[in-house]
Amino acid sequence: MGKKLPEEMKKQQAAFEEGVKKQGYPVKVAKDLWPLIEVFAGYGFNKCIFATTYVKLPDGMRMQVSAAYKNPPAEIMSMWPDGSIRPHKVARIVKTSRKPLLKVVTRSGKAIKATPEHRLLTTEGYKRIDEMRLGMELITVPRKVTESQRQARRESITRLNRTARQRARASRRLAQRLAAMSTDEVAAYAQRARSGRSPDTMRASAAAMHARLKWLWANDPAWRVKTVAVSLTNVRACYDTGPGYGRCSIASNGMWCASAPERDMCEWLITQGIDFEMHKVLATGRMCDFYFAGIYWEMDGMDRVSEYFAAKYGDLPYVVVTPEDFKFVVEHHLALQHAQNGDPIVSIEPAGEGQTYDVEMAPDGPLNFIANEVVSHNSHAAAYAQLACQTAYLKAKYPVEYMAACLSIETGTPDRMAVVLAECRRLGLPLLPPDVSHSEMDFAVEGNGVRYALQAVKNVGASAIRSIVAARESGGPFRDLDDFCRRVEWKSLNKRALESLIKAGAMDGLGNRSLLLGNLDRICSHAQRAERAAAAGQTSLFDAMSDAEALSLPPLLLTSVPEVPQKKLLAWEKEMLGLYVSEHPLSAFQSEGRRLGASSIRALSPEQAGQRVKVGAQVASMRQIITKKGDTMLVLEIEDLEGSIEAVAFPRTYNRFRELWQEDAILLIDGTVDVRNDRLQLIVEEAAVLERKVSTGAGTLSVYVRRSGDDDRDIARIREAYLLLRQFPGTDRFELLTDEGGGRLPIPLPGDDGSVCCCPELLERLQALLGEDPVQVIAPAPQPAEPDPEPLPAGPILDAADADALTASDASDLVDAG
Fold it and tell me: In 3-state terms, what secondary structure has residue 321?
């Protein structure tokens, strides 16, 4: 569609209509939907500029868009809402194709070549080039005067004025100019020369004047009567002499002013020599206060909300300013480079065909860029907005078809497919596993669910898929494994592809997965004999040849094999499909994760940077990194049912939880959200095994560590046992015991509630970690028959500042306690 090739679009339309019909929908549905796709093709990717068009860089240099495509700049110049020309980030530059072009030329000589659908900013808003007319004014950028040009002008003026005679003549001209002015004009000229340039000064002066007027009004009755009379006379004169409201009056240039501040600003603009218009009518019929330098100025003293002015001016450049700030904002603005109007179009002509490009600006700023000194619209912004509306409609009205199409598009990108699968689960759409008796090449609609695509199975090529689908379409679904072996063309389906189909679960309808894999060689041999028998049988009908295989093919007999554990089956599925489909290993632990406060990886966002979060995830891959100090750290790729994220365990954390770092391990990770190179990352702080912990009902778990005489070794063993117990939170109780005075005494654990889930896995891991002797795991722990010895000294043996781990510094406490 992006190429806008008519022949190709017709082929795609025919294929689309045939596919809709095949799925059991009326062809009218396809005919109604196709224009939505076709419109986007015409709208989205044809608003392009010609390859030689220049964009402006922040340093003032220019770059052709074709060069910018090869070496994308981080920023180019854009027009911001106030009309100023400033840098803005580039999202990307897209190379499209050769397309018909139109050339637009303005009165000042600016020219741009673009596709007819491309939009440029005019005084009437953004317009397509093929909708423009001669005389329409473009908003353009004035030619910037460089410092070297200014210096050249200074030198030229100096040369012209270097003699005393020339300087005397300039002085006489100034004297003649002042002599021609009235006394008030000379005073105003001098006042302008001496006036301050700070808005604060003006506000202070206005405040002092208002304070004096308030005092006079309260304390001078005669002044009050005189002022009221003069005010009424002036207002009456205003309404008698012309339209308007408030202090309506006529400025010295004949323009009507609707208020006293407006009149003051009008006179000031006149004295500054600024060419301006008052009450310029917009395309909507509304009016601005002033219009000059390509900007619509709104003098507002009512503190109206910004939405009011955004709705009034739309895409046109405008500035809202208070009466007190008007002069200073205008002076500052005129010192900057800004957009300007008044550059009417003098010609719009065809310019042949040429290579085109599209510039997409970042969404956090103006969606335009400066192209050949003309304000050009960011085409993709509008195109993607339209696409978003169309896809939202399709998703709402045809959710199953829409999600099947999304999965087909994302085939080969497991990360993206995981997001789409999570959305299917959220919508309640069942995802049916791959099946040789039902699956198509792409993801397909089946009932109210989506059937997994055969092309998404690793090692299965298109020819093998076509062979399976053709056999099924000609003879119906496969009845059994023997039927599959006889009907499929085995020239296309080899042993490796068959193994992948079995591991992916696509053959589950024809037999047990473990059984099929255990008899893989037998199945392939039987299939090849069936294929030879079919070929030989056809020959014997004509040549009267006797072929034993053709006359009688023995049935397929499979030998029994041990059942493969469910965990291994899921691992095969992940290997062949890139993700888990039938069941995710984490599915069984979701309730446990939620109970422990875990959130989904998809819910994490850059706004959470610096915050601690918990996630229940599976370790997909990991790699060790040696730091400059020689320490080991770990970078993990962890994933849950909805997404994946990179997690980093720095050396201290890596060593604390060394026994947990295994691929496919299911962990509860407590970490800090971080953003690195524009990617989310999780800095691991804590880690524990996330399991479906089913308590044995022991009530209390007593773990006894016998003293060996080596304090360092004993502390290390106690620490490992304690960390293992911490990985199994639950509602049972535990106590950690050691020798003391011929008996067993509990070790105080500050900051720990002593809770644990006394499950078989924990008991097994404790025994594997510490052995049967001298460690005893008793549930519930019987109290020793010996007389109770004198209790340990009060206070914790473990350091309260580091309650979650014993360190070597605790050795002295343990020795002192014993």
Answer: strand
Longest dimension (CA), the chain: 137
Sorted by sequence, the CB contacts under 8 Å of residue 629 that are 6+ apart come out as 651
CA gap 590, 691 in Å, rounded: 10
Please give the average per-residue pLDDT across 368-375, as a whole number. Answer: 90
DSSP tag of 433:
P
What's the whole-number mean pLDDT along residues 376-401? 76
Q: What is the DSSP string of 649-660?
A: E-HHHHHHTGGG
Give the length of the chain: 818
Distance CA 405, CA 609 (A): 34
Cα distance between residue 467 and residue 452, in whole Å: 17
Percentage with pLDDT > 70 across the chain: 75
Contact call for residues 282 and 313 (beta carbons, < 8 A): yes
**DSSP code of 198?**
-
- Check if the beta carbon of residue 54 is closer than 8 Å to that of residue 390: no
HSE toward the beta carbon, residue 660, CA cutoff 13 A: 28
pLDDT at residue 548 in the model = 41
Token pair of 267 as six digits: 């006179």
Q: How far apart are CA 121 and CA 318, in angstroms?
A: 14
Read off the pLDDT of each residue in 248-262 and give the average, rounded to a whole number: 78
Here the tokens at position 293 are: 């330098």
Nearest alpha carbon to residue 316 among 123, 152, 445:
123
Q: Distances from the Cα of 430 to the Cαs of 214, 440, 504, 590, in angstroms?
A: 77, 17, 17, 18
Instruction: Extract the tokens encoding 160.
Output: 């012209």
CB contact at 8 A, 454 and 434: yes
What is the crossing angle of helices 27-44 and 6-22, to 10°?
150
Judge whether 330 and 84 are in contact, CB under 8 Å: no
Strands 679-689 and 644-649, sheet pairing: parallel
Asked if 736 contacts 725 with a C-beta cutoff of 8 angstroms, the reply is yes
Is the pLDDT assigned to residue 44 strictly greater than 80?
A: no
d(CA 600, CA 613): 10
Beta-carbon neighbour count of residue 384 at 10 Å?
15
What ranges in 600-757 are assigned the alpha helix state H? 651-656, 711-726
CA distance 299 to 323: 6
CB count within 10 Å of CB 478 equals 22
Annotate 660-689 with three-state secondary structure: HCCCCCEEEEEEEEEEECCEEEEEEEEEEE
Q: Is 598 helix (H, G, I), strand (E, B) or coil?
A: coil
CB 644 within 8 A of CB 620: yes
Q: What whole-number distance in Å separates Cα of residue 762 and Cα of residue 196? A: 80
Whole-number Å distance between alpha carbons of 116 and 37:
20
Residues 277 and 269: beta-carbon distance below 8 Å? no
- For residues 800 and 797, give the distance between their C-alpha atoms in angstroms, rounded to a whole number: 9
- Count other C-beta atoms under 10 Å from residue 751's C-beta: 11
pLDDT tens track for 569-622: 888 888 898 877 777 777 767 767 777 888 888 888 888 889 999 999 989 889
Whether the bond into 585 is cis, omega within 30 of 0: no
SS3 250: strand
Other CB atoms within a 10 A radius of the CB of residue 476 amount to 11
Residue located via tokens 């006042």: 191
Cα–Cα distance for residue pair 728/504, rounded to 1 Å: 33
> What's phi and psi for 728, nearest 5 deg?
-125, 70
Q: Which element (helix H / strand E) includes 170? A: helix 164-179
Task: Answer whether 223's CB lies under 8 Å from 233's CB.
Answer: no
Mean pLDDT of the region 541-549: 41
In degrees and rounded to multiples of 5, residue 129 shows phi and psi of: -60, -40
State the pLDDT at residue 38. 67
Bond from prior residue into 774 cis (ω within 30 degrees of 0)? yes
Dist CA 36 CA 389 (whole Å): 10
Question: Could you tell me the end-to-end alpha-carbon distance of the chain, in angstroms, rounded to an integer?
Answer: 81
